[in-house]
Request: fold
Amino acid sequence: MIRRPGRRTVLAGAAATAAAGLSGCLQNPDPNNGGGGGGAQKYTEGDTPGTGTVTILGAFGGQEQSAFEESLADFQSEHDITIQYTPDQDFTTTIQQRVGAGDAPDIALFPQPGGMFDLAAQGHITPIDVYLDYDALAGTLIPGFLDSARLQGRVYGAPMRMACKSLIWYPKKAYEAAGYPNDPATMQELYAIADQIKGSGIAPWSDAWGADQATGWVGTDWIEEFMLRVHGPEIYDDWIYHRMPFNAPEVVEVFGLVGELLKGEGNVLGGTATILNTPFSEAPLPLFAEPPQAMYVRQGNFVTGFLPADILENLDEEVGVFAMPTWEGGFEGQPILGGGDLAALFTLNDDTVEVMKFLTSPEFGGPWAQAGGWLSPHKTFDASQYADETTRRVFDIAANAQVFRYDGSDVMPNAVGGGSFWTGMVEWLQGAKDAQTVCDEIEAGWPS
Amino acid sequence: MAVVTTTPSTSPGAAAAAPEPERRAGSPARPVRLLIGAVGMVVTAWLVCNIFLAFAYYPQWFAGSGILIGLLGLIVGIGGSVVFFYFLNLCIEGFPSRFSEGLIPYAFLLPGFSLIAILLLYPTVQTIVYSFANKDSTAWVGLENYQAIFGDAGFWSALLNNLLWILIVPILTVAFGLAVAVLADKLSATGERIAKSFIFLPMSISFVGAATIWGLIYAYNTPGSPQTGLLNAIVVALGGEPHAWYQIDTARLNSLLLMVILIWLQTGFAMVLLSSAIKGVPEDTIEAGRMDGASEGRIFWQIVFPQVRPTMLAVFITVLILVLKVFDIIYVTTNGRDSTDVIANLFFRKLFVEQQAGQASAVVVVLLILVLPILVYQVRSFRQQEANR
Reply:
């Protein structure tokens, strides 16, 4: 074997030099100057003629996509506009990449405001006051929606769909047979009923946080619900926008209150081990066991999608729902925590503006409401279009809310809202760390 | 690729025809050839690149048809590289033949080497560079990232887990693979085929799929309700209490349970390679052992085993490198909760969740440093094997 280290060394050296030459520099800190949006103050029809085609990028596919497209069918033929909707499972990343590459869709439907703010700050999105009637929109929307899409005084997206989270579900037949009241005015009243349920030999609550790598998000909802009820929307906003530290005494106090409920002996079916090891979609199942093993589940309106088929068939007879009540001694109005898809505009022309006007109007969504699983963010939406009484009830709860607030973990930076907040909740529920430690760690990890 | 189709590398015929008094061995430089070759290469590369860009930017030129673009892409891609290599060859032949004979192999290695440079070396160096920069790689921060990760208890826990994975998974995988290969060898031909197919089957399952399947085995339900998880169903049937397996980090039990998944997946791989190695052991060596009256055990350990050892080593190292990169199984089951984190998952979280590009780079640089000795060892032992042939 003849070794020729000389040549090999030369080659390796050449490779290293080439690689170093290609890479030895930093990235441009501000690669996206200019681009669409931004400039105009007020758009009037005719400023830029449309192309007849409007592209929309969103996160939902499958049945939701067909219901969405169906809702746009009449509009398309009336206005002679073709809408091309592209669903993308990995929307959050895709939209950043496409906009960065200069290939933005005309309209994007953001499931969370966070990603929209990033692009708005770079000047890619046109604020809605440029092309929509802001006051009319604010008049029909559930209050609070537009505030959650506001960045430095201007609103960049308008909601197209609403999710309502502050709901407590119960098995109607068993619950009413036992004679428990279904209209507690405060959480304290609810606790009193829960104690009665406990007295009857079963756990009052069922809860489940399991969501593979996202385990813990259900827990963040609990904290948000209690923050909103105990301390009110102003402190809630300060908290989610990080105008006060995450480990402020108010937050630690709320961890304590949630802990009393979730960790209390006999409160939740199976205790913390069951909460952490059951997929969130299975939380309602014990309510419909024979006999029921628990009476309450707190979860968003989407939970009906996970109910057993025989329950789903008779949804209105089998399932009851009421709004998670207020906290005695806390904020007085009924707050609702939720979410929504925000439509944001990248390309400003006659056609895209027309589509945005329709998407964000109370008239949009009839066929989708019929198909189920969709809520209009407008108070003035014609509720008779919903497929069942339960959905109408949920819509009433949301429409009558004094305050609507966006799910805080969706607004927080991803490092917290999709990372340390989730894991922190799990560690706290397990008892591996106490509330103060968890809050301190989340605060320490908040991106500067 | 179409590399082979080029013209013969040297053409001394034409040169020899002319009276060349000076040297028999070579031809002089031919600048025209050199120039045509160089220009041809540049033009071909430019043309091919622009045609591909046109596919992306102006699909309407090609009637917006995906099939047409795909076909044209094939033709332009393969044809382009043939033409490129033709000009490359032409260019090299333009050099004096003494020179060109030495250059030819490198010229043909160049495309492959530049691919490695662009896809492997460049990102590696870039990562090392970024590990000294801040979270969005816009300013230098010195050793801050390394300080941050070395000061983080989570990092050391992940490192310890990686160490456990490295120590346990490859050895068990090879051991099980060897055991199955040896035992299957004793079966009838059909029996062996069926047994090996079944054990090889998990190899075709993705890591995420496997994690889901094993999720059904480790599942936990409230005590008192029916246990849907196989393991807990057995425990309860034997009169025990159900356990939330993924949460038990005493003696890293949860990590061990996750390792079972990977061993289950990889045993088939080890088995296939080891089985063929065992079949490759010359019958006469075994025969000789039998003649001398050696027991089956002794034949295995002293005759078969030494002869399959190189294959075992290759399997061991392949699995070892796989284990160093293990990510999917952890991500979809526990996402690193309850002290099950590993380096790759930590890196993913730092980069994509916490968006700390600097710290994420530092984490993978540490991983790279850990992998290097193994890679060097593997390359060296491979070379030794080649030399022994």
